[in-house]
Fold:
Amino acid sequence: MAERTRLVATDLDGTLLRSDGTVSTRTVAAIREARASGVEVLAVTARSPWSTSPVAAGCGMGPLAVCGNGAVVWDVAEARLVEHTPLAAQEAAGLVLAARDRFPGILFGAETVDEVVAETGLFDPAELVVWAREASTAPDVLAHLERPVTKLICHHPDRSVDQALLAELAMVCGDRATVTSAGTGWAEIGAPRVTKALALALVCERLGIQAAEVVCVGDSLNDLSMLAWAGLPVAVANARPELLAVARRVVPANDEDGVASLLEELSTAGGGAATPVPASERG
Structure:
């Protein structure tokens, strides 16, 4: 564990954000105080840059953000693309066809840096509009796979997205893609080897920060890679069991401002490392 924490990387939905999608006044204050004390606070999320930017900029997070499960590095202050590791359009189309063959009835969406196209029934239209600059529905996503995609998003109406489904989907994709999930409703498919950890490592290299100086906080399966990479892996109390099993520290749930409490502790310590909590004391 680092003697000094220089960066806190936090997931957004289910971690930093409350269940209603808002950020508390306490959390905003904690982020700004942490950065003033010399601790960078970065969003590392499955969201697109378009969806991430208002949250990150509004909270004072930065200087960069990791979006699309690691496929995108985004400059928050300048609102510009820094890095993009997409899935080739032809490869994405092949994966859609292979998944449809294995899981009849599966629904797909395709997300780029600024656009999302979702097959009818994949999302509630009211939710879709906040995902990207341009959002639309279509009968068949294959007709819209004309350029590389940040990720594919899929859901089967008759199956929950659990470890068994993800394992089956990973077998279908093989080494052509990376399969993960940001929550219980959808599976997400990105370019090979793309993870939150890989992108975060690149960001930290740019900033001159070592993994041992990083605290990572998450709640879902797509956060596992960055928790494994970080000097101090942290889970919110509402995290999936897989996260709670690997975390060396568990903070209060997202609705109880757990990330804020962690940042307040770091600010008080002047960037000193947060203390792990023994497994016997975890909530």
